[in-house]
Write a structure and sequence with these properties.
four-stranded mixed β-sheet; alpha+beta; 6 helices; extended; 145 residues
């Protein structure tokens, strides 16, 4: 007698097997070994390197130089790879009829990530100012020996 989960997995994995192979209810480990050989799951790494452009012309020049590579990527990936900020206003990359275009983001739709980045910058500035004040106080409190 096999468990419900094993039966469910066998039904789910049946299409992955060749048509002449059958699933045996007595050997779930053999089934797992067969599916491990066929199943390939790519490991995605987080995007660590983000390129920032401060004008539309800069991005346009970069796009013209790397047109084939960028056209193959999704707009989601492009927006993660590239930040385009003109006059403190972020732009998003979109595709309209296969053509890359830039659009502004309404103030109401600025993502939480952008707000977090702003807060992190402000936090770093505050930390630097506090450290400067602490150093100044420490220098003034030192007694001549």
């Amino acid at each position: 007698m096999s468990c419900y989960f094993c039966k469910y997995e066998m039904k789910r994995l049946q299409p992955m097997l060749k048509s002449d192979e059958t699933i045996s209810a007595q050997s779930p480990s053999a089934l797992a070994m067969q599916t491990q050989k066929r199943a390939f799951i790519p490991v995605l790494r987080p995007i660590e390197e983000v390129t920032t452009f401060e004008s539309v012309d800069d991005f346009t020049n970069y796009y013209q130089q790397h047109k084939e590579e960028l056209d193959a990527l999704s707009t989601c990936k492009l927006n993660k790879l590239f930040k385009i900020i003109v006059d403190d206003e972020p732009l998003k990359i979109t595709k309209i009829k296969g053509e890359l275009t830039l659009r502004t983001i309404p103030k109401s739709r600025i993502t939480a990530l952008m707000k977090i980045e702003e807060l992190e910058e402000q936090q770093n500035e505050i930390i630097e100012k506090i450290n400067a004040i602490v150093n100044l106080i420490n220098q003034q409190l030192q007694l001549p020996q």
